[in-house]
Amino acid sequence: MLEVNGLRVSYGGIQAVRGISFHVDEGEMVALIGANGAGKSSTLRALARLVNPVGGNVRYRGKELLSLPAHQLVAEGIALVPEGRGIFPRMTTSENLRMGAFSRNDKQAVERDLEHVFSLFPRLAERAQQVAGTLSGGEQQMLAIGRALMSQPKLMLLDEPSMGLAPIMVQKIFEVIRTVASQGMTILLIEQNAKLALEVSQRGYVMESGTISLTEESAKLLADPKVRAAYLGE
Amino acid sequence: MDTLIQQLINGVTLGAVYALVALGYTMVYGIIGLINFAHGEVVMIGTMVAFTVIVSLAGSGMPPLLVLALGLAVSTLVCMVLGWALERVAYRPLRHAPRLTPLITAIGMSIVLQNVAMIIWGRNYITFPPMINKQIYDLGGASFTNVQVSIVFLAALMMIGLIYLVHRTRIGMAMRATAQNPQVASLMGVDINRVIAMAFVIGSALGAIAGCMVGSYYEIAHYQMGFMLGLKAFTAAVLGGIGNLAGAMAGGLLLGIIEALGAGYIGDLTGDFLGSHYQDIFAFIVLIIVLMFRPSGLFGERTGDRA
Ligand SMILES: Nc1ncnc2c1ncn2[C@@H]1O[C@H](COP(=O)(O)OP(=O)(O)OP(=O)(O)O)[C@@H](O)[C@H]1O
Ligand SMILES: [Mg+2]
């Protein structure tokens, strides 16, 4: 579904991503783990065209992705849940969710999907009319995921959905991610919390200073002593 | 008492005009954080174009109201194109430049527009042929005209339309999203280049209408009139909290009233040392006070909130 080849991202002189290649197949959940500053977010931001990669190519369902402007990706079925959530702080919860469906024009289906998101996250239904900037961090993360779902994506790119959240909230959010994945969504998941990411995903890539150093089935990565030592704190 | 009522009436009229112009500053600032100093000149061009249309049609035998409406329509169209072109040619290439660069460009564009207007319309004051049969009504010793009523009514209509656009339509939703977080807005499928262009176009249309109001209210126009008008409308936007639409409307109205009251009473207050032609100083006193004590304005958002 997604095939990345030799992707490079630079900020001024700094090379954040140094020619990485990986792929995500239809219906798969793939984890991308690595230390702070390894270049995980930069990779996702390049895929979502929020930064212009300096090299490489990305094929997505037979199309060259890097030739599309950012605002056309959502119509191709790609949704990014950005690091730090990126909600619209002065819009209400429900306006934020409707922004997720901005590029759609099937009104009735949008209403149905709104109900679906509310059923996945009942907390959002209670807060529907609340201004999103006043939601708690966990609620904002739910909102960011719900908003991504509102675009009816085929591929979801999640950037650290567990960041800064209490364990109970992380659990709730990952429950939903599992549910969505089990319904056939293709997901590329970035996580600091490597254990969690490898537990829910089928395959994993380990990123180290801008390159991919290891790739394996998630279960094997979880058992790998080197990975355990470096990323699972053992 | 008569003076009070009279100055309130004048203030509301003036304030309606300031509010329309202030909206142009605040919409652009809210979305790309740029103070478009050329906006006052767009308003001036609006006045001038309306003048040309009205003068050239005045002798044609068309009904005066139709001539006025045509003047308004043509000047609105011209200003929309001008606003669009300004963004496209002068500001878009500088989108990622340091903040000072587009600001200086804006000042440059305002000088360019002034000079273009001087070449086309000359350096003298031009007088508007009166199109409306002016009627004067009496209100408790004070008076107001049908021109004033039309100005206030039309301005209110435009503002209601704008509020509807921003809060109830797709493009309005895109504008609010872009103002709050442009990158994420583009992830949602918003073409932010289009949204930014729209902000300029809508702001310029409101400016053109304000320009026509100024022309028919004072019945004169001049190629430098955009400078003072722009500065005052900018003050109004800052007073209300720049970037905030309701703030621009309230700030415009308030500034108009402050200025009119100031002009009405400045003679009494200074023992006739300063006359009402000093009314311009009030806008700047307000600007200085706001910047000193409440730079975020009356309705100001905390700057941390801005995208
Ligand atoms: N806008 C930017 N300008 C300059 N350098 C940047 C920018 N964004 C990221 N970098 C640098 O690129 C490198 C990779 O950053 P990136 O955000 O991709 O890391 P990450 O793997 O997502 O880390 P984390 O787990 O901490 O989120 C870092 O060294 C970072 O300092
Ligand atoms: Mg990151």
Structural key phrases:
heterodimer; A: 234 residues; alpha/beta; B: 307 residues; mainly alpha; ABC transporter involved in vitamin B12 uptake, BtuC; two-stranded antiparallel sheet; 11 helices; 4% strand; disordered C terminus; binds adenosine-5'-triphosphate; binds magnesium ion
- Secondary structure class of chain B reads mainly alpha
The quaternary state of the protein chains shown equals heterodimer
Record field, number of beta strands of chain A: 10
What distance lies between the first and last C-alpha atoms of chain A, to the nearest angstrom?
35 Å
List all distinct small molecules, including ions and cofactors, that are bound in this structure. adenosine-5'-triphosphate, magnesium ion
Summarize the main sheet of chain B.
2 strands, antiparallel
Q: Reading side by side through the largest sheet of chain A, how are the strands ordered?
A: 6-7-8-3-9-10
Helicity of chain A, in percent? Answer: 25-40%
Largest interface comes to: A-B, 27 and 19 residues
Q: Identify the CATH class of chain B.
A: Mainly Alpha
H-E order of chain B:
HHHHEEEHHHHEHHH
Q: Specify the overall morphology of chain A.
A: globular
What is the H/E string of chain A? EEEHEEEHHHHEHEHEEHH
What would you note in describing this structure?
The complex is a heterodimer of chains A (234) and B (307). Chain A is α/β, with parallel strands linked by helices and 234 residues long. Helices cover 36% and strands 27% of the residues of chain A. Chain A contains 9 helices and 10 strands. A 6-stranded mixed sheet of chain A has the order 6-7-8-3-9-10, with helices on both faces. In chain A, strands 2-1-4-5 form a 4-stranded antiparallel sheet, with helices on one face. Chain B has one domain (6-130, 141-293): ABC transporter involved in vitamin B12 uptake, BtuC (Orthogonal Bundle). Helix content of chain B is 73%, strand content 4%. Chain B contains 11 helices and 4 strands. The termini of chain B are far apart. Mean pLDDT of chain B is 92; it is low at 302-307. Classes of the chains: A alpha/beta (234), B mainly alpha (307). Chain A binds chain B through residues 48, 50, 69-75, 79-80, 82, 86-91, 95, 98-100, 102-103, 133, 147, 151, and chain B through 170, 173-174, 176-177, 180-181, 183-192, 301, 305. Bound molecules: adenosine-5'-triphosphate and magnesium ion.
